[in-house]
Amino acid sequence: MTTAEFNIRPIPERDRPERTAGRSVSRGYVNGVPFLLIVTMPTTYTLAWQARLDFNHLERQVFLELPRALWPRSVTRPIRWPSFSIIWPWWISGSARLVVAYNDGRDDNVDLLRFDNIRSLRYRRVIRQQRIAFARFDLKFIDKHVEPQSYSFAAANHEYYPSRPIVSLKLDRGHTTTPELWNWIWPGSEIGQELGSELDSTTVTHQLESLLRQTA
Q1: What's the angle, vertex CA 83, arms to CA 80 and CA 87, rounded to 5?
Q2: Which sign does the torsion angle of CA 146, 78, 205, 200 carry?
Q3: Bridge pairing between strands 44-50 and 33-40
Q4: Can you spell out the DSSP letters for 1-47?
């Protein structure tokens, strides 16, 4: 299997529709094809890409697989919550915003629901029983091996947004990405599936670290 070539190019300020002080925008390309949008701010940075996540297993991705990729040295084990038989994320705390779609044939019949606590019974009923068109989580990872770490994750369900199934991840600037994170992002991305090639995750990590230093 061939290895895809990755490089980062800044987007000039004149080419951006919005200009914000302290913000820098770049795009990551794979074999010359746009793959990743990178937005850096004074204290955070955001990665956005197109992917078709399986929303039937959204919690497992956000609460288990993603933390494992971000903090690979920490131990996070799946625990079954008896009432719902889904992962109970004792290592995760935070809030969620969910767009719930109702199956009555109307495209506009949706609700935006806010949950201050993802451990609440109300949240768990909705995430388990309703069809989710869009989800955003503002979370904190808690583990004895590392200091508490904040991250935000958002995803659009491709069943409702087929042309733009965007996924985004926001991290503190002090947290650099890992090869494990790119090994999680790349196989599920649209371009990764289209190309069918490998991505040198170490090269991507180093290039992003260099960009964060340049925009500090």
Answers
A1: 25
A2: positive
A3: antiparallel
A4: -PEEPEEEEEPPGGG-S---TT-EEEEEEETTEEEEEEEE-SSEEEE
Neighbours of 49 (CB within 10 A): 22
User: What tens-digit pLDDT sequence spans the chain (216 residues)?
Assistant: 577 889 999 988 765 556 666 788 999 999 999 999 999 999 999 999 999 899 988 988 898 889 889 988 775 555 554 444 455 667 889 999 999 987 644 556 778 999 999 989 899 889 888 889 999 999 998 877 777 889 999 999 988 888 778 999 999 998 888 899 999 999 999 998 888 888 899 999 999 999 988 887
Residue 210 to residue 178: CA distance in whole angstroms: 14
C-alpha 189/C-alpha 14 separation (Å) is: 29
How far apart are alpha carbons 119 and 53 in whole angstroms?
Answer: 22
Amino acid at 11: I
Please give the full DSSP string across 54-78, using - where no structure is assigned: -GGGHHHIIIIIHHHHHSTTS----
Range of the domain at 128: 3-214
Cβ–Cβ under 8 Å, residues 150 and 139: yes
Helix axes 179-188, 201-214, angle to 10 degrees: 110
